[in-house]
Structures are given as C-alpha cells and as structure tokens.
Amino acid sequence: MNRQRGMTMVELLISVAIVMVIIGAATTAYLKILRTYKTQGKLAENYMANLTGLEMLRYDIEMAGFGLPAGLGAANYTEASDGTVSYYNPANLNDSPNTPPRALAHLDNSAAAAHNSDVLAIKSTSANVNATSKRWSLIYDGGTPQVKQWNNSAMDFTAGPPSADNVIVIDFNGNLVLNAGQWCNAFKTAYFTNANPIATGLNTSYVYYVYGLDNSTNGHRMPFNRVDYYLDKIPAQFPSTCAASTFTLYRSTIDQQTGNFDKAPLVDCVRDFQVAFGIDPSGQNTQPIQWQANLSQQPWMTNYIAGNQMSAWQIQTYLREVRVFILYQDGLGDTSKSPSFRFSGTLNLGDQDIAHSLDPGVYPAPPNSFQQLSAAALPGALSTFTPAGADCQYRWKILEMDVKPMNLMNLPSGTPR
Prior knowledge:
417 residues, alpha+beta, 8-stranded antiparallel beta sheet, 6-stranded antiparallel beta sheet, 4 helices, 17 strands, 26% strand, elongated
C-alpha cells in the first residue's frame, strides 16, 4: 500500500509565500546593486568627460592672446553674428569693426534663464580646431626676408597644393601688416614666389611674426579665431539623465565665413558656470593679485574710462590669472519614488582668495577657510546654489580650475590702445 501523500494546500501556499519573499528580497538587493553600478559607472564616465572638457578650456585660456594684433591700422573686420544661442547675444562680446581684439571678453551673470551663469569668449589665432591655427613662424632678414622653417611637418606652413594655409602677419610692435590691402592671405601666395621663400613688402631690418588661421577658401571675418564658453540647452543634444534644471556647457568656435557658431557640447548636466579674474594692480608683478568677478576697469588703471570693460591693452597689462568654477550634477540622480539619497546644504562657487577680494570685511586674507558647502550662502561667493525639490535627488559638485594665461605678456606693452 502506498503511504506517500502530497502537500496540503496550506503547506503549498506557505511554501510559495516563502519563495516569493526570498525572490522579492533578492530582487530588491539586485536592483540596489544595479543602481549603484549605474551610478558608479556614470561617475567614472562624467569624470573622464569633464577632464577632457576642462583640458580644452585650460588650453584655450592659456593661449588667450596668442597671435592677436595689438594695432589694426586701416584694417576693419567683422566678428560673431550668431542668433541661435538661447541666453546671450554673442555680438555683445565683439570688438569689431576696428577695435583691437581683447584676449578675453566676459559677460558676468548675464544669462538669467541659465541661472545667471557667466559667458567667456577667448580670442587668439589658436582658438580653433585645425592644424593651421597651431602653426606660427617668423620672417627674418637672411639676405632676403626668409620665413623660418621648423623642419616639422606639423609646425611648418605649406607652400603648395592641395591646400594653402591662411595667415596673418604682425610686426615687432604688434601691428597687423597688410599685403596688397588684405590682412589675410594664403601663405604660398603672399610670402612665397615659386619655391623661394621671399616675403614681399616688408622691411628687411625687422622681424615679423606669421600666425596661421585655417586652410579654408571661403573668406575670413577676423584676423584671429574665437571660441565662446556658455550654458545652453538644445533638446536634441541634452541627455535625459541630467536634472531638468541643468544645462550643457558649450565650446563654440566662430565660423570665419558666416560668423555663426560651430557648437560642441563640452560638459553635460551643468548648473552654473562662473569665472573670476586675478588682476595685478601694479602691472609689473610687484603687488598681490586682486580678484574681480568681471573684467570691468578700475580707477587706478591706465587710460581708465568710467564704467567700461577693460581694453585689450589693459587686459594684457593687468590680467595674471583666471579661475573657473563649474557646478555640475555628478552621476545619476536617485529619482525613485522613495529616494535613499537627499542632497542638503548650500553650494558656494568661489574660494578664499576671491571672497577676500570681493568682501574683505567678512573674509580676511588666506589661509582662512572658505566653505564651498555650508548651511547658507556666503558673502564674497561668485554665486550660490541651494538644491530644492527634485534637485535634492542629485549629487552636486564644483570643479575649480586655476589657469595663468601664457601669452598676454608677450604682446607689446607700449602706448595704451
């Protein structure tokens, strides 16, 4: 006789319930591990992307002023005319048609719709992404004017097909040299006769400098290149993982033919972009640097004009350092119905040096600390951010970068222009 018997319905239901509890616990743990994995993966991805973007920004600031003419003579030029940017007008940073270009031009807390972020324009012949803009040389007297060759294919200008480098020439006083009435010429046409590197129309007693712009045949608006850094939000390019209150930091170069931007997203999920400028009041590196939130003139500056922005000559003479602060979302947000992470506190963009310059009554000279994360907004900060609502479900960080422009002191320091 078979004495085996099956499970009762009650036993079966209890077994199923136990299994479901185990599966539920395992699923919860798995989802938590998965969210952590995605968050950590996004943190690493953000770090590498931000590092690449910041190195491009650092390079552009270091090269600010490279190849810029300090005097234009009879030359005129046009500059930016892009109307597709949401939160500022690029033409507001123009120096055209006949003002010597500033190495850096700046709008301080100008874009209200982009959280009052800054805009920074950097002007130099190298402020573009092409091989020609990285080239330069000099013309010296070697019996006849000779263009120095570096014996490096990446550095030497070309003298023949298939393309010709477009260049400008600057004399030893920093003035733009015209060739047949033009400031931009194809290198092989303007400074080479057949295969013989003979420059025409130049004084053989002087040294001249040649700077490359690009190898385009479509015309040129400016005797330099320009790149703008600003916040914008283009829906087709904006990542869905970014907080709704953030933007993308763009690096946009000006098309020499049209004046429009060639836009390149640099850093995603950015809440704020702030820039501060370190000024040497003596102009001779003999006084401590004072920090400004903008490039406005000060009464002690040579050739001071009340209420105006610093001129190209003043920037060359007084500017020593640039500090950049980028407030961004780090990794993925915890957007679940019951988030386990909540950001609290106030983020202050700036540092002790800047705070002391902007509000010395509250912040004494360093090494006293400036709290980037505190319970309240701090006087002397360039800007502040207190996450609220959905923004509390994201991690926020501040990137700080200190850069010394390396090409401003190389320009002539004669009569203010």
